[in-house]
Every structure is written in structure tokens, then in C-alpha cells.
Amino acid sequence: MTSFLFRLIVYLTLILSFIVLEFRQATEAAIFLPQPRFSLTTILPSSSSALENYFTGEIAQNNATNLNSDENWIIKDLKTNKILRFGIRLETYPVSYKDEISNEYKGFCTVFAQELKKSLETEFDIRKIELTQISIKNFSQGQDKNPRYQGVENKEVHIECGANTIPFEGEFTSLDKVEFSNYFLKTKIKLLIPTKHIGQLNQKPSELKVGVIEATTTKKRLASASQYKLITYKDKRKAIEDLKENKINAYASDSLLLRGILNELEKQENGKYILFPQKENLSITSYPELYGLAFQKGNEEFKRIVNDTLQKKTIKEEIQKLEEYDKGKKDYKPRNPNLKMLIIFSLLAFFLGCLFILFFKDPIFKMLRLLSNKIRKKT
After folding, report:
1. Are strands 250-254 and 294-296 parallel, antiparallel or unpaired?
2. Contact in structure between 138 and 124 (CB atoms under 8 Å)
3. Could you say which of 20, 128, 213, 373 is the most buried, measured as most Cβ atoms within 10 Å of its Cβ?
4. How far is residue 63's CA from residue 297's CA, in Å, rounded to a whole number?
């Protein structure tokens, strides 16, 4: 009988925990934004150190000019509606992605969204801000718009998070309404290349066909700094298909993103592909890719809170995990932002199960005895 009680309590706990999780997931929105088009022109700083100063020093402050209207509209909207519309790019593992099995948002951006929500609630003494995570598909169409930032420009989202390289001044001429937070991660441009093509890198680089996503900082910076023959694509899936079919010799992107693709390819053909350069501190361009969060210009108060949130211990721990993953030292294990709530609800469910057994043990035991007697009579 003791073992029965224990099993019953465990079953009740699991059932209630499942109900709670399903309810929480059902409240999260998944809105897919339209996909506009864009192109680039570039003005580059002269060195890597100048680049970092550009995004963290006085130049960055001067670059973030306010709009003539709608100044600090994000904070005003949050105070009025108490809803944080947080845009998350899909398919940029491990920075931001949607788990195919659970259909949940995961990665750095999801953790940051939760922490930003807490920061805003504390800063403005708002009792509870509802967090709505909005999925943003990023498939370039190669015209005059950057699709990943349309939600920011049109006020469909307050902020957008993903593997977004902070552009140099003038690099995205269409982004006159968008600015970025301080950078939270520095990665490098590398090649995902079959081992059989390594020799061609030094012998005939101009004949090496390298796939790249069109209208991106990766393409622009490679075009100005390498001898490769660039083949442009609208999305990475087609590029990887062509790489596997030997239609291109390599695929260029941020090393952080390439590592995830490499891991998937190794499950099918271990040892066939590598990242080049292989040394973690080397890149095929002179400039690092600095990731930042995007929002509309003229929201200095919101920008301050975003940058302050990047300094939180929880966020720094997530950034460290991204850095270790980028260097190939550790697999990325996403933090569950709802872990604390899950523990609380599980404990609550456990105690409710105990109370249920305590108050209804007599009828339960009576029912079990009757059932047992019926079984014995049949046998």
C-alpha cells in the first residue's frame, strides 16, 4: 500500500506539472512578420580596435541620433500597455532559435527577454509586464530593405534579438531608424569547407566558389577583403544543400553559426567538413562580427536599460556559454528561463497530491479493495 501511495503522488505531481507547462506555452505568441528586401553599401573603420571603439565609445553615442518625433516611445508604450514585444530571429542557433520538438523559443535571446522584462518592471515599478516573443524569419530578397529589422522600423516589436552583426556607419543605408545596444558577443567570419578543398585555398583562391547569404555584412566584408568567387543565396538551407552536392566549395558565415551547422553535418558524415581557419582566434577577414540588439533610434532610456541588462550576472553567464561554444570548448546547453517556476509548481503539485491522498484515502482504499476482490473472484 505504501508503494501505491508513492506512485499515486508521483503521477499526480507529473500530471499537474504537465498541465502548468502546457498552459504557459499556450500563452506565448508566435507571430511571423513579413519579409522585406534590402541591399548594402559600406564604410569600414581602419582596424579591429577602431571597430570596437566605434561601438562602445564616443562615436557610438554620436551615431545614435534621436528622431525628431516619437522620442522614447518604447517606454511610453510599455507603461501604457504593459506588453513587451520581443522579436527573435529564427534559425540562428545558439543565439536564437525555436526547438523543433518542443516548439519553444530557446537560446540567449529567450533568457535575455526574461531578464529585460524584470529590469523594466523594476525600473518603472510596473507590477507585471507581459512578454510576447515574436518570431522573425530572415530570408533576404536582395533589394533595399533589411528584413530582420522591419519589425523594429514599423514598431511591430520593441526590440529584436538574434545573431545580428552591428553594422558600420553607412553599411546599411536603409537602417536610418535603427540603432544597436552595446555588443554582447564577438565572433569571426570563417569557412565551412570539405577537407578535400583545403589545398585549393592557397593554390587557386580565386577559383574557390564560396556561398554567402546575399545583402549581409559577411558578403560585403568578404567582397572587399577576399579573392574568393562569391555565390549568393537567399537562405542558408539552399547554400548547405549545394555545399553537400559540391555545387559550391565552401560556405562563409559567422563561426558561431557555422559550428552548429558543422555539428549537424558530422552526424551524417563525420570528418568530411571543417571550419577554416581552424585556429579559434583567426578569421578570413580583418574585422570581428560584433552582435548587438536592435531597436528604434530616439529611445535612449530604453537603450540604457538594455545595456544595463547585458551586465546582469545571468546574462554574462549566457554570454560565456556562447563564447565557449564558439571556441569549440563546450556544447551549448540552453538555460530554462522557466526553471524556477517549474520547481515551484512541481512542489505545489506534490503537496496538493499529498493533501488529496490524506483527505480521500478511505474511499480510495475502499475502491481498491473492491477492485482487488473482483479480480480474485474472476481468477
Report:
1. unpaired
2. no
3. 213
4. 10
The three cell numbers of residue 13 are: 505531481
What is the rounded distance in angstroms from the CA atom of residue 49 to the CA atom of residue 150?
Answer: 30
Contacts with 128 (C-beta within 8 Å, 6 or more apart), sequence order: 82, 121
Q: Which grid cell sits at 129?
A: 509586464
pLDDT of residue 131: 96
pTM of the model: 0.71
Q: Report the CATH superfamily, name and number, of domain 31-187+289-337.
A: Periplasmic binding protein-like II (3.40.190.10)
- Residues β-bridged to residue 190: 253
Between the two ends of the chain, the Cα-to-Cα distance in Å is: 22
3-state secondary structure of 155: coil
3-state secondary structure of 25: helix
Bridge partner residues of 180 (DSSP): 294
Q: DSSP E strands: which ranges in the chain?
A: 83-89, 97-98, 105-106, 130-136, 159-161, 178-180, 185-187, 189-194, 209-213, 229-233, 250-254, 273-276, 289-291, 294-296
Least confident of 221-230, 274-283, 345-354, 362-371: 345-354
Q: How far apart are CA 222 and CA 220, in angstroms?
A: 6
User: Nearest-CA neighbor of 181 among 311, 317, 45, 269?
Assistant: 311
Residue with cell 558561431: 256
CATH of 189-276, picked from 3.40.50.300, 3.40.190.10, 3.10.290.10, 3.40.50.1980, is 3.40.190.10
pLDDT digits (tens, 9 = 90+) for 164-189: 999 888 777 677 889 999 999 999 99
The C-alpha cell at 112 is 535575455
Band the pLDDT of 66: cuts 50, 70, 90: very low
328: Cβ contacts below 8 Å, ≥ 6 apart: 259, 280
C-alpha cell at 168: 558600420
Residue 73 · residue 295 · CB < 8 Å: no
What's the DSSP call for residue 368?
Answer: H
Burial of 12 (0-12, 13-18, 19+ CB in 10 A): middle
User: Which residues of the chain are in CATH 3.40.190.10 domains?
Assistant: 31-187+289-337, 189-276
Q: CB of 147 within 8 A of CB of 35?
A: yes
